[in-house]
């Protein structure tokens, strides 16, 4: 009997561990933020997230400057100063309290990450230009960490906000402009005005045989 109770307790704890781990990695945006395709503001924009939205923290870079988060159907990177995490009952910023929060530290590989999450995005086709940059060019030294974690409560999220992807204009290209006159610059000369042919007045030549005058009868 006691053995059954111990086994039931172990199974119950095992079932609670994934839920507890998931809850332990939930954070909130404390400001309107851009979700980027990498841990640097130079990376393409994935979507925009308003303040007060709950996100799942997949992990952070060493130094807790940027975190890989999932927001709705989108996944990307957010600057950790804009993420608040509950610690000792207080919403503290991840960038200021990272070492004590127990969040996993992860690395970033643009090839694997983009292949997994960004196929079909308008800038996915330009990934080769990102591959040729120096290794770890996105890494920046973390700012000086304060002596105490910074408390920053998240605002109330907008009630009508839904996760959405930005729509690039015309497949990522600006709309084309076609100049007038079939692509040629307009001429500086004034338009040619042809004179309209004027009709000469009706002038008939004099009659060569003038009419004869017949004298009247009787005088």
Task: List strands and helices in order, with pairings.
Elements: H1 2-24, E1 26-29, E2 33-36, E3 45-49, E4 54-60, E5 66-71, E6 74-79, E7 83-87, E8 90-93, H2 94-101, H3 110-117, H4 127-131
Antiparallel strand pairs: 1-4, 1-7, 2-3, 4-5, 5-6, 7-8
Outline the structure in words.
The chain has helices at residues 2-24, 94-101, 110-117, 127-131; strands at residues 26-29, 33-36, 45-49, 54-60, 66-71, 74-79, 83-87, 90-93. The chain has 219 residues and is an alpha+beta fold.
Envelope shape: globular
Relative strand content: 15-25%
Percent helix? 10-25%
Radius of gyration: 40 Å
Mean pLDDT: 74
Structural class: alpha+beta
Q: How many DSSP E strands?
A: 8
- Low-confidence residue ranges: 5-23, 167-188
Order of neighbouring strands in the sheet with most strands: 6-5-4-1-7-8
Number of helices: 4
How far apart the termini lie comes to 169 Å
Biggest sheet overview: 6 strands, antiparallel
- Helix-strand string: HEEEEEEEEHHH
Task: Jot down its keywords.
219 residues, alpha+beta, six-stranded antiparallel β-sheet, two-stranded antiparallel sheet, 4 helices, 8 strands, 20% helix, globular
In brief:
The chain has 219 residues and is an alpha+beta fold. Helix content is 20%, strand content 19%.
